[in-house]
Amino acid sequence: MTIAIIAHDGKKAEMVAFIKDHAPLFQQKNIDLIATGTTGSHLERAGLEVKRMESGPMGGDAQIASRLVEGKVDMVIFFRDPLGKHPHEVDVNMLMRLCDVHNIPLATNQAAAMRFVKTL
């Protein structure tokens, strides 16, 4: 199972804390984590293993969306900052739309992500 991890800048600390709190779950042999570049670097600094894509504004959201369309992503955890402006919002919307098109579970906040981890 591959889980994509993404977080807007204002949510990166919350994402790292969430993943660390559930590290034994995410570090299972059958789970691979991929992340946008900056989120991935935060996760790596926290001691977690993750495959990093480009940063979001440089195409990381699109890279993850491409893998999703290819059937290589099983779940997306994307802590969005609904109050911030994001220069790559079009990529974010595309990723979320493709989750809907391809019926991929998408958690956009910690409460939804908690529900997801209970299914792993």
UniProtKB/TrEMBL annotation:
CDD domains: MGS (cd01422). The keyword Lyase applies. Keywords: Lyase. It is an enzyme of class 4 (lyase). The keyword Lyase applies. InterPro entries: Methylgl_synth (IPR004363), Methylglyoxal_synth_AS (IPR018148), MGS-like_dom (IPR011607), MGS-like_dom_sf (IPR036914). Substrate binds at H8, K12, T36, G37, T38, T39, S55, G56, H88. One of its GO terms (biological process) is methylglyoxal biosynthetic process. GO terms for molecular function: methylglyoxal synthase activity. The active site is at D61. Residues 1-120 form the MGS-like domain. GO terms for cellular component: cytosol. It catalyses: dihydroxyacetone phosphate = methylglyoxal + phosphate. Its EC number is 4.2.3.3. HAMAP family: Methylglyoxal_synth (MF_00549). Belongs to the methylglyoxal synthase family. Catalyzes the formation of methylglyoxal from dihydroxyacetone phosphate. This is Methylglyoxal synthase.
